[in-house]
């Protein structure tokens, strides 16, 4: 239970950082998605249920505070957390490349799910051609930042004697 509390606090802290401080550090107009990286890391460190709950919490934060349509990001983050968490037993958790690959695939999957959901809700979405560059840059940023965030999470878990 203590581990889940630390995960929830990490998601909340990453949401606050994502929405306030990271806006000043954009690269080519793109902000890396630290919250998605944490959902991927926590899902790989645990199971599908915990990953789904962490994803659900993150999505509710984003939908409730930032976006007009409620439920789109909640569904996307939930699916990503649950799917990655359910496959976490089959992955080598010590391999940083697995975390990076999961973060890259999750970034593309999240944007694809959000685009498709908004399209079918007949919400105004920009052309997929114009969004491709920003998704590609965000995928690269998220993949590279995954290693640093993972090392920080492992450091915090090690200091708190959590497995």
How would you explain this protein's 3D organization?
There is one protein chain. This protein is an all-alpha fold and 163 residues long. Helix content is 74%, strand content 0%. The protein is built from six helices and no strands. The chain has helices at 2-19, 34-45, 48-65, 72-86, 96-120, 128-159. It is globular.
List the helices and strands and how they pair.
Blueprint: H1 2-19, H2 34-45, H3 48-65, H4 72-86, H5 96-120, H6 128-159
Query: Order of helices and strands, N to C?
Result: HHHHHH
Q: How many helical elements?
A: 6
Largest sheet: none
| Proportion of beta-strand residues | under 5%
- Measured as a percent range, the helix fraction is over 70%
Derived structural class:
mainly alpha
Unreliable residue stretches: none
Mean pLDDT: 85
Report the span from N to C terminus.
Answer: 12 Å
Q: In angstroms, what is the radius of gyration? A: 15 Å
Total beta strands: 0
User: What is the molecular shape?
Assistant: globular
Quick recap of the structure?
The chain is mainly α and 163 residues long. It is 74% helix and 0% strand.
Descriptors:
163 residues, mainly alpha, 74% helix, globular
